[in-house]
Amino acid sequence: MAAFLDVRDLRCTYGELEAVHGIAFSVERGSIVALLGANGAGKSTSLRAIAGGVRRSGSIDFDGKPLTGMATEEIARRGIAFVPEGRGTLYSLSVRENLALGAYALDSRRARIRYERVCAYFPWLEERKEQAAGTLSGGEQQMLAIARALMMDPQLMLLDEPSLGLAPRIVHDVFELLQRINREDGMTILLAEQNAGAALRASAHAYVLETGRIALGGPSAALAADDAVRRSYLGY
Amino acid sequence: MQELAQQVVSGLATGSIFASMALALVLIYRSMNVINFAQGEMAMLSTFVAWELNQRGLPIWAAFALTIVIAFVGAVALERIVIRPVEGAAPLTIVIVTLGLFTAFNGIAGWIWGYVLKTFPSPFPTTPVRVGDVAFSLQDIGIIVVSLGTLLAIYLLFQKTKLGLALRASALYPEQSRLAGIRVSWMLALGWGLASVVGAISGFMVAPVVFLEPNMMQGIIVYAFAAAVLGGIESPVGAVVGGLSLGVVLALLGAYVDFIGTDLRLPVAFAIIVIVLMVRPAGLFGRQKAVRV
């Protein structure tokens, strides 16, 4: 049986430049999978290829049906929530409006149920719902971005560099939260991360990308335990 | 004193027409970063449609209602067919397309209805009402009520509904909106439809005052530009405040400053555009934007 998310021979191009040269990976339903690698290895491009918005070829199958050729908004409606690098905060809108936008494609009854679920994860959102999202701290904006993605009631969450620009303690909180969402909601999560240590601890499976190719992949615990892998690919 | 009150009310009436037209411009500008130069001609076409329906026996308010539907559907179709192919193009390309639409609509209206001035029936009684010593024109009051009512409806749509939130988000954050599953491209078309409706209503209001002919909106659109620039081209509230204050200022200048009279009103509008752009380019309600280079 094919995996929940099955990516095969994915190539992505920016103009004349090919950034991802035919990679393949898969994500099982209910798991956390990490794409690791240095800046420019093609992690973000691969995620954005799944969410739409990058010129891509190859096949991306989600829940048994192909995503290739679909526009970003239709992919979102298929149940894939993408939290982009830099959190994608809608700065001038209030916290409440940021969340409401996440539930845009849902009917009002489902949106209300999602809102209650999201507030269970983030009780502070309820108290600050009229605040402009741009005035939140970096960590809070990252939490809001995850909350907005959860409002979509997605089947799969994609996160691009969720730890970027955050203090170590906040990074710890973000990963702990992602694990909790995975555990309690059975959420499937695919994340791209430069912070290999944190990502390997949180994920079940990981792939290491190097200049647009997959250098190696395997269970996260095995990758983390292998000293040679750590030194040559992950740099810690 | 009575004359001042009358001038202010008549200024507010013309000002609310400027405000509606300015809001139409701002709605498009916010979502596309482009001035729709055809906005006034779209309003003029709608007004002709209303006139035609009325000539064929439809009561004037029914003609307005039907025309509003036509103006909305027509503008959505126009966006889908003419603007959509250049949606991602440089702003200048889109500006040229709207200039093309301007001449096309002007020509079409002249071809169908000719250039002879037509009287447009006023939807309001022309008898004045007396409040104490002051006589106000019911037409002025009607214009103010209808225009501000339209603006209020647009405000409520944008601020209080889910669709309005999606419209705002699509204009400001198109990429994030797509990721939330919003069909941004359709939101643009919807924005064209709404701007067209607001413009059409200002056409209905102004036509009884200035007579109906293909060039009737060309003066109005300049005042609307001035109002939008004064209020801040990205600010809907600014467009309304800008329009109303412009109307009142022009009425008072016309009445009390002899050398301006009615002939020099248009240059005053141009002067306002130039001065605002020099002194405070973001307008009264706009925020100065820092652009990273």
Give a description of the structure.
- The complex is a heterodimer of chains A (236) and B (293).
- Chain A is α/β, with parallel strands linked by helices and 236 residues long.
- Chain A has 10 helices and 10 strands.
- Chain A has a single domain (5-234), classed as P-loop containing nucleotide triphosphate hydrolases (Rossmann fold), CATH 3.40.50.300.
- A 6-stranded mixed beta sheet of chain A has the order 6-7-8-3-9-10, sandwiched between helices. A 4-stranded antiparallel beta sheet of chain A has the order 2-1-4-5, covered by helices on one side.
- Chain B is an all-alpha fold and 293 residues long.
- Chain B has a single domain (2-279), classed as Orthogonal Bundle (ABC transporter involved in vitamin B12 uptake, BtuC).
- Chain B contains 11 helices and 2 strands; from the N terminus they run ααααββααααααα.
- Chain B has helices at 2-32, 39-55, 60-83, 91-113, 138-160, 162-172, 174-179, 184-210, 217-231, 236-256, 265-279; strands at residues 128-131, 134-137.
- A two-stranded antiparallel ribbon of chain B has the order 1-2.
- The longest helix of chain B has 31 residues, at 2-32.
- The N and C termini of chain B lie far apart (54 Å).
- The model of chain B has no long low-confidence stretch (mean pLDDT 91).
- Chains A and B meet through helix 2 and helix 3 of A and helix 6 and helix 7 of B.
Quick recap of the structure?
The complex is a heterodimer of chains A (236) and B (293). Chain A is of the alpha/beta class.
Features:
A: 236 residues, alpha/beta, 6-stranded mixed β-sheet, 4-stranded antiparallel β-sheet, 40% helix, B: 293 residues, ABC transporter involved in vitamin B12 uptake, BtuC, two-stranded antiparallel ribbon
